[in-house]
Write a structure and sequence with these properties.
mainly beta, 5-stranded mixed sheet, 6 helices, about 10% helix, disordered N terminus
Length: about 575
């Protein structure tokens, strides 16, 4: 069960100093316990979770270039959560909404900044699933797979455009599904409860040592939040095949689809009445990996995503002195096609490298949003690389960068440097700096929302001038990771300063609305997560985030965005 409680109070230096002192104390104690004995390389080879997301290289958790929260199958099972968005409450610095008003439940990091969470990269088995139709929102993508099909979730808390490009401006979420060999057989599960909860899950798996397969279907439904226009239902079908055609080749095939029926709107509000909306998506993904030798491999990924949205309601024209109704629509479709190739190899006993390229094409079509039936196409061409250098047994340096060319906004470059120091056995300090970027979405760049009835222009809601440019983040962080197996404790602390430049905001004081690079501001603070396993099979988790955000909610009145300055979560 997750028991979130959030407090808002004046954020003080005293709180940060106390937490920093606590992390320093944890570092000193094990050193004293060792009576000053020297630390050998063997001390750093104890069991440690392997992370795949951060640099595209498999790395131990204490050697990744960034702070990572891992949510494994046991944590998912114990949480009582019904979807991925709810699970992210266990990640420090995250804010979660369970409403379907923005198509699907959302999770944001260090601030929501609007109705859609579009400053995070969301991956499922390495496939990017943010929505180009909804300004890059990760909400629909969080609903793509059932919790029962998930092996683990890796959440990088910090910028990572150096590896994943445009949308990884504040963090990355990678959902890793279970290997089909681990789900051979069949089962069925039905869940019912208050507030109209009706969930169902039915997978089947089969195969042999050469190939295994899984097909799962599930649905989740409830009556929505109190006061909201429910009910909501999510239906999914997902399939995975794992093949080994030769001793050196691995092939994975994935495909599936999802639809969301959700209520939205407010009773009695003429321009946002209660109604039903419908969102559907389908995908196909091919992954091929060839082992070229014991020290190098080649990986190819091809994927296609398709999404469609339907949302409309009648508008009474008597406010214009006319008789009749006008159908207001927000419907449309989008697609994503991706081709990527990467080469990983060990250059020497102390140096590992990964490099590669990616081509990504996004296509958005909506007469309602752009006043044309033509498709808006944005192509991204990317080159990336990362070098891991073990300068000494206790020191690991990660350097990486991505060059990205957009057919709409031009060139961007995102570098990162991170140094990890194993100060003692189970004690790691991390220091680094990175730059990330987010070009404007299709809607922010080209929106043209106007209402025309029988040739008469009733009004223009949004008209983008196209002058909006790429926003960027310069991120600096100091981190600490401590493992204390004797007491079943682990502590992860991250102090950060994120300078956002050219923040893209909708100018909504008058109609028609436009988008502009309106502001530069800082997000800074400290977050930590503490885990305690008093005995096998039990875990108590506690995290806090102290955040200051100097962003303005309204540039004219200079009112500030509401962001929790202290947020705490307890899970058990």
């Amino acid at each position: 069960m997750i028991s979130p409680f959030t407090h808002t109070r004046v954020w003080t230096e005293r709180a940060l100093a106390a937490l920093a002192a606590t992390s320093a104390l944890f570092t000193v104690l094990p050193c004293r316990a060792n009576d000053g004995a020297s630390v050998s390389e063997k001390d750093f080879l104890a069991d440690m979770p392997i992370v795949l997301t951060v640099s595209r290289l498999p790395q131990r958790l204490d050697e990744t270039p960034g702070a990572v929260t891992l949510i494994d199958r046991d944590m998912i099972r114990r949480s009582g959560a019904r979807d991925v968005a709810d699970l992210l409450r266990m990640v420090p610095g995250f804010q979660v909404s369970n409403a379907f008003e923005s198509v699907a439940p959302l999770a944001s990091y260090h601030g929501a900044f609007g109705a859609f969470s579009n400053r995070l990269e969301l991956l499922i088995d390495g496939r990017s699933v943010y929505s180009p139709y909804f300004i890059g929102s990760i909400g629909p993508g969080l609903q793509t797979v059932a919790l029962q099909d998930i092996e683990r979730i890796e959440v990088l808390r910090g910028s990572n455009s150096a590896v994943y490009g445009a949308r990884a401006i504040l963090g990355v979420i990678n959902i890793v599904t279970r290997h089909s060999a681990d789900t051979v057989g069949g089962e069925a599960a039905l869940t019912g409860g208050s507030n109209g909860i009706q969930d169902a899950y039915a997978p089947i798996g089969w195969g042999d040592e050469r190939a295994t397969f899984r097909l799962s279907a599930d649905s989740r439904a409830d009556d929505g939040l109190v006061g909201a226009n429910g009910s909501n239902q999510v239906r999914r079908v997902n399939a995975r095949a794992d093949l080994s055609p030769t001793a050196g080749d691995e092939v994975q095939l994935r495909f599936g689809g999802m639809d969301i029926d959700a209520g939205k709107g407010i009773a009695g509000k003429i321009d946002d009445p209660q109604r039903d909306s419908y969102f559907s998506t389908g995908y196909a993904q091919l992954d091929w990996r060839r082992s070229l030798s014991a020290d190098q491999d080649l990986a190819l990924k091809v994927s296609h995503n398709q999404e469609h949205y339907s949302d409309y309601f009648p508008y009474d024209l008597k406010v214009f002195g006319l008789s009749g109704t006008y159908t207001v629509s927000g419907s449309g479709s989008a697609s994503i096609d991706v081709l990527s190739l990467q080469h990983s190899f060990r250059h020497s006993p102390t140096v590992r490298m990964v490099w590669g390229g990616e081509f990504r094409s996004e296509r958005v079509t909506s007469h309602a949003l752009y006043n044309t039936d033509a498709a808006f196409v944005t192509d991204f061409t990317r080159l990336f690389g990362n070098v891991e250098w073990r300068a000494a047994p206790a020191w690991v340096l990660n350097t990486g960068a991505m060059f990205e060319k957009s057919s709409v906004t031009g060139d961007d470059f995102a570098p990162r440097v991170m140094l990890n120091w194993h100060a003692a056995q189970g004690q790691t300090w991390r220091l680094g700096v990175s730059k990330a970027f987010r070009p404007p979405s299709t809607y922010e760049k080209f929106a043209n929302v106007r209402y025309v009835w029988n040739g008469l222009l009733l009004g223009v809601n949004t008209l983008s001038s196209g002058r909006v440019d790429t926003e960027s983040v310069m991120s600096r962080e100091l981190g600490y990771l401590g493992e204390f197996p004797r007491w079943g404790l682990s502590l992860d602390v991250r102090a950060f300063h994120e300078q956002i430049n050219g923040f893209i905001r909708q100018q909504n004081t008058t109609l028609p609305r436009d988008y502009a690079n309106e502001e530069s501001f800082s997000i800074y603070g400290l977050e930590y997560q503490l885990k305690w396993q008093p005995w096998p099979g039990a875990e108590l988790g506690f995290n806090q985030a102290f955040i200051r955000n100097d962003s303005l909610q309204n540039w004219t009145s200079r009112t500030y965005l509401s962001v929790p300055e202290l947020a705490s979560t307890l899970s058990y």
